[in-house]
């Protein structure tokens, strides 16, 4: 039974373009992770600030292994660098971080976990 892991990213309106640009040039390393089944970046169209990073995995263990892997680290190189840059006094908060490089594209993140109880695809 597959598991779905959704990273909920809170993205201020003025950072949406930057976030989508980063995902558009993402490392793509997750694509060859063991047990990886699907990835989608879901853009909010209802006026909220929450993007959903949807991933589906063969098992919980496969997801955990990826999250501990080099591929996860490399896939998050830019995000990690931004988070670090923010801590170095270059900026007292997200706003000021914008002057020195773009700063983190998301101001918050949380992970939602699901098991696929039922699924269906288009009738062939
Ligand atoms: C602090 C938490 C996190 C933040 C701020 C974050 C942000 C980002 C950003 C900005 C990127 C684009 C690449 C980059 O700029 O580095 C990225 C890539 C990605 N993120 Fe996250 N992320 C986080 C945790 C997670 C988690 C927990 C998941 C899984 C549910 C996830 C799934 C992905 C995937 C699949 C990619 C593409 C990686 C690749 O292409 O190999 N992220 N993330």
TrEMBL record:
<dbReference type="InterPro" id="IPR011008">
    <property type="entry name" value="Dimeric_a/b-barrel"/>
</dbReference>
<keyword id="KW-0560">Oxidoreductase</keyword>
<dbReference type="InterPro" id="IPR007138">
    <property type="entry name" value="ABM_dom"/>
</dbReference>
<feature type="compositionally biased region" description="Gly residues">
    <location>
        <begin position="86"/>
        <end position="102"/>
    </location>
</feature>
<dbReference type="InterPro" id="IPR050404">
    <property type="entry name" value="Heme-degrading_MO"/>
</dbReference>
<feature type="region of interest" description="Disordered">
    <location>
        <begin position="65"/>
        <end position="124"/>
    </location>
</feature>
<dbReference type="GO" id="GO:0004497">
    <property type="term" value="F:monooxygenase activity"/>
</dbReference>
<dbReference type="Pfam" id="PF03992">
    <property type="entry name" value="ABM"/>
</dbReference>
<protein>
    <submittedName>
        <fullName>Antibiotic biosynthesis monooxygenase</fullName>
    </submittedName>
</protein>
<feature type="compositionally biased region" description="Low complexity">
    <location>
        <begin position="75"/>
        <end position="85"/>
    </location>
</feature>
<keyword id="KW-0503">Monooxygenase</keyword>
<feature type="domain" description="ABM">
    <location>
        <begin position="3"/>
        <end position="91"/>
    </location>
</feature>
